[in-house]
From TrEMBL:
Originating species: Halovibrio variabilis
UniProt GO molecular function: serine-type peptidase activity
Pfam families found in the cross-reference section: Peptidase_S49 (PF01343)
Upper classification of the organism: Bacteria, Pseudomonadati, Pseudomonadota, Gammaproteobacteria, Oceanospirillales
Family: Belongs to the peptidase S49 family.
Protein's name in the database: Peptidase S49
Length: 370
């Protein structure tokens, strides 16, 4: 076989040399291009020498790729949204379950009247913190605790466990009146035990008890009434703000901190404070009786140590809750009859209070404090 025939046979078997281009094949025509990755815009524009059909095919594939990327992004965002919705739903379910648990716990497992011990004990009622309608030391809660301890058959005494700087005159008077009512029945003693501090409205409450016990270093007294405020009338003029207050009644805004307090308004308000102070003094005298000394400083608003209070008749004896329990029941055995606090209720009450303050619709508390 000749060399020409051999070359023709190799070509017929498909063994073509590198760089060979067939004259009739449109895919192999045009300049040789070095293989490499092209950008999306270059891919859409096509390769040099592409005909219209090839270019359309490349554009269609590029559009499909872009659509795949867009769909993938949408699906990712939907998955993220579903995860957040699931998270908030689980949080809502957890809050509802927690509120139900605390409610059932307070109803069925946390009632001292249901599981009161058979042996003699002290019935404790806590007065802890500022005395106010929106605080744990509010009149409704403390009076309910007093009723529970008073009705417990094996409670040898009702003990007001006080650690409070005072607070609302109205709340303090409500608790005082209930203690005096129970005290007049005479079934069991009511004893106030002052821990760190029993001042102002807290001492108002303690004065209704049959007996007051305090530590030698407890702070006792502060029998007085206070009003505190600020005057911003000059500051508001300096910063160029106009105060607009509309009232029906000449003295409706006499305690507005952005208006000056004239002599007549000051005398009137001082009279209100003095009258409230007189009620405070009368109730302390009614509760303590002849045990009070004749010192004029007792009702001046001063605060005393427990040891000084013994000499003034503000306190009956120095001691502690453990010592009182040993004296009354022979051992350190007591039961807390203070109604438990519902955490969910506290959270919702605090949230509502903050929202009302932010909107400017919260009810103002009394400007006077014991």
């Amino acid at each position: 076989m000749s060399d020409d025939q051999t070359r023709q046979g190799d070509a017929g078997n498909g063994d073509q040399p590198s760089g060979y281009q067939s004259e009739g094949d449109r895919w192999t025509q045009g300049p040789e291009v070095t293989p490499g990755k092209k950008s999306r815009s270059e891919a859409i524009a096509g390769w040099p020498g592409d005909d219209a059909e090839t270019l359309r095919e490349r554009q269609r594939l590029a559009q499909i790729e872009m659509m795949d990327h867009w769909i993938g992004g949408v699906l990712t965002e939907q998955r993220r949204t579903r995860r957040w919705k699931l998270f908030f739903r689980l949080m809502l379910i957890a809050i509802v379950l927690a509120s139900l648990f605390t409610t059932f716990y307070s109803l069925f497992w946390d009632s001292p009247s249901v599981a009161a011990p058979a042996q003699r004990h002290l019935g404790i009622v806590d007065v802890n913190g500022v005395i106010a309608s929106d605080s744990p030391a509010n009149a409704e809660r403390i009076i309910q605790g007093l009723s529970r301890a008073w009705e417990a058959e094996n409670a040898a005494a009702v003990v007001l466990h006080i650690n409070s700087p005072g607070g609302s005159p109205v709340q303090s008077q409500r608790i005082y009146a209930e203690i005096m009512r129970l005290r007049d029945q005479g079934d069991k003693p009511i004893i106030a035990v002052i821990e760190d501090i029993g001042a102002s409205g807290a001492y108002y409450i303690a004065a209704a008890a049959d007996e007051i016990v305090a530590s030698p270093v407890s702070l006792v007294g502060s029998i007085g009434v206070i009003y505190a405020g600020f005057g911003f009338e000059e500051a508001i003029e300096r910063i160029g703000v106009e105060r607009r207050v509309l009232t029906a009644g000449d003295n409706k805004a006499f305690l507005d901190p952005f208006q000056p307090l004239d002599d007549g308004a000051e005398q009137f308000w001082q009279g209100v404070l003095s009258q409230t102070h007189s009620q405070f003094i009368d109730d302390v005298r009614a509760g303590r009786g002849d045990r009070l000394s004749d010192s004029p400083d007792i009702f001046s608003g001063l605060i005393w140590s427990g040891e000084q209070s013994i000499e003034l008749g503000l306190v009956d004896q120095l001691g502690s809750l453990e010592q009182l329990s040993r004296d009354q029941v022979g051992n350190t055995d007591w039961v807390d009859y203070t109604p438990s606090l519902d955490p969910f209720e506290r959270f919702t009450r605090r949230f509502t209070q903050m929202a009302a303050e932010a909107l400017g619709v919260s009810a103002p508390s009394s400007p006077m404090r014991f």
